[in-house]
Amino acid sequence: MYKYLLALFLCASVSAETFIPTEDPMPGNWFLDSIKYTRPLVEKKYREKLDKLDKQPERARCAELHNQLMEEYFISNRREEEAIEKALNWHKGDFTWHNNKFYSRPGCTSWVITPEVSSTGTSMLQKNRDYRNQNLLSLRLFRAAPGRYKVLTVCDLWSSGAGAAMNEKGLMIVQNDPLSSEYHARKVNTGSVTVMRYIAEHCSTLEDAEAMIRKFYTTGVCRSGSIYLLADFNRGLIVEATPRHVASSWVDFAYEVRANNFLLPGMLHYSNRTAKTHLNGANRRFSASSFLRSTVIEKGKVSPLDLMKLARLRDEAQEKAGMRQVCMANTLCSTMMVPDRMYPEYLSVAFVALGPPRHTVFLPVPMGLPALPETLADSRWGTKSLKLADKLPMDHPGLKEFEKLEEKFFKEFSETKEKARLLLLQSKFKEAQDLLMELFNKQYKEAGELLTSLEK
After folding, report:
1. Which among 113, 209, 331, 368 would be 20 to 30 A from 48, CA to CA?
2. How far apart are CA 80 and CA 150, in angstroms?
3. CA nearest to 355, candidates 335, 326, 378
């Protein structure tokens, strides 16, 4: 699959770049536009999996039950999923079944930084995802339907959910997998990726988001547990959930790191973690927290550049001893989100490593972009970075080049962001968007050239 997708990437690089607009009124188009390059190879494999797991009539029945359960409490995505099924020529219910069967738990290590110790003056939220069985990565920026918030997401390509998400109101959400002992025995799960996208599209405050998560889990819509980290401009929120029990805690100062362990009062009872797996999660939490504490002591504040270093943190001796690290060989990608207080719909930014953090560049992606390059959405960028991870060691010489380019990108973005702010203050919205897009295109090209140079 790597060889096939890399060939697609090379073909695209010699032709004019295609962009996917962030605003498209047709239901499901934002998803369909992103999968067209991988469809010839990948769709067949997914279709074979569908038929092995359940016959079509059973899939349709389960999908309908899922939609009915959702619609008791929420606005479902039935119309969007039916439009996708029609465009793909799939049977009714098959995409709903596929979307909730294969994509339920993105996993991993995440941290929230509060304004007290953030150099940006707002909270920052970041997730390192550790999982290598679903290697097609998609960065998307879209408004799925009128009346919903525009969202930036990083997730598996053939999922319409979200592995990490930020909306135009500055609300951010990520999820870790706790291996819960409580679950509902249903064939089709409403997974965390569906929950995160729903929260991002419908909630503007942490209070609303917490209430929505509680409803998802206590009404039986979700069948397995999750650890959610959320943040807005001013603080963070931790929510631990099983299908019957939900606990939450505010993060009002400093920072909080989470791996895959339930930690809130009463929740450890519902964990299936062994002593070894619990200690592996505790080690990642301790390592990341120690890094943040040292950074605050040394510098007074934590900057986005510091968090890029944290995303690449590893202790080789510990790794050889079998202890999991913040960044490992199976770390798939990293997403850092930073909202803007004044113009979140334009100037909030995600610094995205769309691929293993030690084998790709953190690219600044502002919320105000009118379109995204197709190669970021359709998995070719991530595939290129994964190919580098297969070729180069964890401590390869190109790491220094990544850091140097990221420092340059961060400086350029910070300067351009303030220029765009001045335009926005004058109600020159298109000019501000054009300025952000011009810088993004330049940085996107430079990052791509660096990745290509390391392939040789």
Report:
1. 331
2. 16
3. 335
